[in-house]
């Protein structure tokens, strides 16, 4: 009995030792086979990134984009799983993020100008957080602080649990972001580097031909700064109500209210700007004006025969805004001039618009692009310098297209107006434009409509070869920083040939297109265009609209920064948004195909600032461009321009290789963007309200 008791007592420490040993052994096995230390709560840290494997159905036809760029053929990961790695927009020490759409500290919402507003319109008044994150997304906090260096998402893991994605890239030195320092007379919140270069503008020898309104980009140092928000800025009024009203504090420029008070351009009502739909030549409303044009020219067939329009000197773009009701897409443009913020008003309304001027350089559009060109008191002297401004319109107007001119020389008999009218009559006759109709509306406002010829026969029959016909070498000059021509572009390249009009909209979107650019000798197989269309259709429907942390109902203004054939824009044509298709100047020229499809776009060099105001786009999309782009300019400069153009609370989507994504991700997080990597080839980044000196990303 005593011996048994003794043995039981002696066994107790042995049992304890065995139990402890077994626990240590099992814990070691668990640690060895776990995906990482962050799997255990006692190994977690504030900088850990979590990775989850989420299955995403992707069509087998959407393996890689068929774009004209050689980079695009590299495609991306063909994995059928989506690896999402999220980084919180708020670095450590910035405090708790506030779910608010507004910078304003006010506690009361501003009154509405219309007392009968529906309850469903509350999104325009009350700051609401976006709800675009799909339920499958897994997030973890992390950031790249200012002044740090980062090579990318270092803790991202591939399906085997190892750091993947190719060779280790050189780390990007992250800047200490600062607000831009602008010149005298420039509003910091409206800063456009290539249009507000005060030093270069002051050095101009002449301003006679609007040289001071043209691009003068800074050279050294190139801006790597951020544009501040206007005081009390908040997310824009949603479309379609934004066409008629916008927040005053988002574009706090009241000069046009007084300057154009008799023309119904814009009015101030409480905390809103309200747009009645008037204009200099259509004081009683743009709807009646559009209907009047259709009455005197039935062949115009808005939205069927006529799809793309260029509106010169557009004001606040009400003409283009109301043509959207007719399935017409209008490129409205005007300079940044004394008509304070007219293009900013237009884009805040959700209407396509662009800053440009007909001065000494060509417009950034291909030859024979637009179905219709419109000018209502646009203040351009068309016959100046031998008619160069009108010759530029002739270059971008499609053969058979119409030029609609509504201005005082059309209907007034003052000596100056008569002289202007006679000069335009002589010039239009010399370039073979046919006068289709000249008429007055019920308010005695006159309109004249010209048509560009569809063949070269008229040019060859002219008694005087003035202006002279351009040579084929002139025709091939790319319209980027090129002077206006003093010669006349024929309707078609070969003498005596004809020109066909695109088929009716919407069939035009998927028509067989001309594969040779007028501004380039590059040819594109039709099969490549078709493949590109199918690729984007599948990818957008299966991934973009379902898997991205983007609230598409909040997206109105979209820019495709490397548009290719316009396949991305075509794939979202049925959404209530519009797309500015940008063809970079160092990529193959496909912009003529985009216009032939009934879409709009421009040429641009992304090593320079874009001709738009800050905070004007809801979604920026870049596909396989950043790699070659950063061989010419620094990734920090590209990121600064993206931040300038993008609205707070909105999205930047980058499709590229994982190495390129890993370079861009920490840069965007240093700007307090919230980032998510999808399928090893997409970076979806949400811009916050942070700026240098603020306390948080959403403050």
From TrEMBL:
EC number(s) recorded for this UniProt protein: 2.1.1.-
GO CC entries: endosome; membrane; trans-Golgi network
Keyword Transferase found: yes
Family stated for the protein in its record: Belongs to the methyltransferase superfamily.
Region (Disordered): 56-170
The name this protein goes by in its record: Methyltransferase
Alphabetical list of InterPro entries matching this protein: Put_SAM_MeTrfase, SAM-dependent_MTases_sf
Subcellular location: Endomembrane system; Membrane
Pfam families in the cross-refs: Methyltransf_29
CDD domains, alphabetized: AdoMet_MTases (cd02440)
Biological classification of the source: Eukaryota, Viridiplantae, Streptophyta, Embryophyta, Tracheophyta
Main location: membrane
Domain of life of the native organism: Eukaryota
Topological relation to the membrane, as annotated: Single-pass membrane protein; Single-pass type II membrane protein
Principal EC category: transferase
Keyword terms: Glycoprotein, Membrane, Methyltransferase, Signal-anchor, Transferase, Transmembrane, Transmembrane helix
GO biological process: methylation
GO molecular function, one term: methyltransferase activity
Biased composition (Low complexity): 56-82, 114-129
């Amino acid at each position: 009995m005593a011996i048994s008791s003794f043995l039981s007592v002696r066994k107790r420490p042995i049992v304890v030792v065995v139990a402890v040993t077994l626990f240590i052994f099992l814990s070691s096995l668990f640690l060895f086979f776990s995906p990482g230390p962050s799997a255990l709560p006692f190994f977690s840290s504030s900088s850990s990134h979590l990775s989850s494997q989420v299955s995403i159905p992707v069509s087998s036809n959407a393996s890689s984009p068929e774009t004209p760029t050689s980079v695009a053929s590299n495609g991306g990961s063909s994995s059928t799983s989506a690896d999402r790695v999220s980084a919180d927009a708020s670095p450590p020490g910035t405090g708790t993020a506030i779910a608010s759409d507004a910078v304003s500290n006010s506690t009361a919402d501003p009154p509405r100008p219309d007392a009968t507003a529906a309850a469903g319109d509350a999104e325009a008044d009350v700051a609401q957080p976006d709800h675009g994150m799909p339920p499958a997304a897994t997030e973890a906090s992390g950031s790249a602080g200012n002044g740090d260096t980062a090579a990318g998402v270092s803790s991202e893991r591939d399906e085997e649990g190892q750091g993947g994605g190719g060779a280790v890239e050189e780390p990007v030195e992250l800047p200490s972001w600062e607000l831009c320092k602008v010149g005298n007379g420039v509003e910091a919140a409206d800063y456009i580097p290539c249009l507000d270069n005060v030093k270069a503008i002051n050095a101009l020898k002449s301003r006679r031909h609007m040289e001071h309104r043209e691009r003068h980009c800074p050279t050294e140092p190139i801006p790597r700064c951020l544009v501040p928000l206007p005081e009390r800025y908040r997310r824009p009024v949603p479309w379609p109500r934004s066409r008629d009203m916008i927040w005053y504090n988002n574009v706090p420029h009241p000069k046009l209210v007084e300057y154009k008070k008799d023309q119904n351009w814009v009015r101030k009502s409480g905390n809103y700007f309200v747009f009645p739909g008037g204009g200099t030549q259509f004081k009683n409303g743009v709807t009646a004006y559009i209907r009047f044009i259709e009455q005197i020219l039935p062949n115009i067939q808005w939205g069927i025969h006529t799809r793309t329009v260029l509106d010169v000197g557009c004001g606040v773009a009400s003409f283009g805004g109301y043509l959207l009701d007719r399935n017409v897409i209008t490129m409205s443009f005007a300079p940044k001039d004394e008509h304070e913020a007219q293009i900013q008003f237009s884009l805040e309304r959700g209407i396509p618009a662009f800053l440009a001027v007909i001065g000494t350089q060509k417009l950034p559009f291909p030859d024979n692009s637009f179905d219709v060109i419109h000018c209502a008191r646009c203040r351009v002297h068309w016959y100046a310098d031998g008619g160069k401004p009108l010759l530029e319109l002739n270059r971008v107007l499609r053969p058979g297209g119409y030029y609609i001119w509504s201005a005082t020389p059309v209907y007034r008999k003052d000596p100056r107006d008569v002289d202007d009218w006679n000069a335009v009559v002589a010039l239009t006759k010399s370039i073979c434009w046919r006068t289709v109709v000249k008429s007055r509306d019920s308010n005695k406002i006159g309109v004249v409509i010209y048509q560009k010829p569809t063949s070269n026969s008229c040019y060859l029959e002219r008694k005087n070869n003035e202006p002279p016909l351009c040579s084929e070498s002139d025709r091939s000059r790319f319209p980027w920083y090129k002077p206006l021509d003093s010669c006349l572009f024929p309707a078609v390249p070969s003498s005596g040939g004809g020109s066909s009009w695109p088929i009716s909209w919407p069939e035009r979107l998927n028509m067989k297109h001309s594969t040779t650019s007028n501004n380039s000798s590059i040819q594109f197989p039709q099969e490549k265009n078709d493949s590109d269309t199918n690729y984007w259709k599948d990818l957008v429907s299966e991934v973009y609209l379902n898997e991205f942390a983007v609230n598409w109902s909040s997206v109105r203004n979209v820019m495709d920064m490397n548009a290719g054939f316009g396949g991305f824009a075509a794939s979202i044509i049925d959404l209530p948004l519009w797309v500015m298709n940008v063809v970079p100047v160092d990529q193959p020229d496909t912009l003529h195909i985009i216009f032939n499809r009934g879409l709009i776009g421009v040429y641009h060099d992304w090593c320079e600032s874009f001709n738009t105001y800050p905070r004007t786009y809801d979604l920026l999309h870049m596909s396989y461009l950043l790699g070659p782009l950063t061989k010419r300019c620094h990734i920090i400069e590209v990121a600064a321009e993206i931040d300038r153009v993008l609205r707070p609370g909105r999205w930047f989507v980058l499709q590229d290789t994982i190495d390129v994504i890993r370079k861009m991700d920490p840069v965007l997080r240093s700007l307090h963007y919230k980032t998510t990597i999808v399928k090893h080839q997409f970076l979806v980044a949400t811009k916050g309200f942070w700026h240098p000196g603020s306390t948080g990303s959403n403050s």
